[in-house]
Design goal:
- This protein is mainly alpha-helical.
- It contains five helices and two strands, in the order H-H-H-E-E-H-H.
- The protein has helices at residues 2-25, 31-52, 67-87, 109-133, 143-150; strands at residues 94-98, 104-108.
- Strand 1 (94-98) and strand 2 form a beta hairpin.
Length: 156
């Protein structure tokens, strides 16, 4: 599972980086778009903090952060997730936690990790749609594109 999660979280960081670059190049300042990008990055902090037994991160789940801050957040949380994955032998342990509304749950860490990347992909899709609706050009963040880029089949 470690190899799988390393590749999955490397892809996630790459995709988030591409979206941020797209937003920066086109000087996107739309509140909804930036709020979604903020949300998907904050969720990565929130889940990692839960898994590691740390206090809640210093970011609000639905607050809009500026692009400069989002860039820093993405770099930091991507590194932290990859470091976490490298440090683990298994991802099967059950995490007992309360979600942001206070409801109690128990899930395996590996299921949370799969959920989190899917959560990010879902919101990147929403961002792409919002960009198109506002006359901007979204960026391709498909996993297969990432795989082609890292294998040298695609010049990015």
């Amino acid at each position: 599972m470690k190899k799988y999660f390393l590749k999955l979280y490397q892809y996630n960081a790459w995709a988030n980086d591409r979206v941020l670059g797209c937003l920066e190049r086109q000087a996107v300042r739309d509140e909804k778009t930036l709020t979604l990008m903020s949300h998907l990055l904050v969720a990565q902090y929130l889940w990692l903090h839960r898994i590691e037994g740390q206090p809640k991160p210093p970011y609000e789940l639905w607050q809009r952060y500026p692009l400069t801050k989002l860039r820093i957040m993405n770099t930091e949380i991507a590194h932290r997730w990859l470091t976490f994955i490298e440090s683990q032998d298994t991802f099967e342990r059950v995490l007992k936690y309360h979600n942001y509304t206070g409801d109690y749950f128990e899930n395996q860490v590996e299921q949370i990790m799969i959920h989190l990347v899917n959560h990010c992909t879902y919101h990147r899709g929403q961002i792409a749609l919002q960009l198109r609706q506002q006359g901007y050009e979204p960026i391709n963040t498909d996993y297969i594109t990432y795989d082609r880029v890292i294998s040298g089949q695609w010049n990015d």
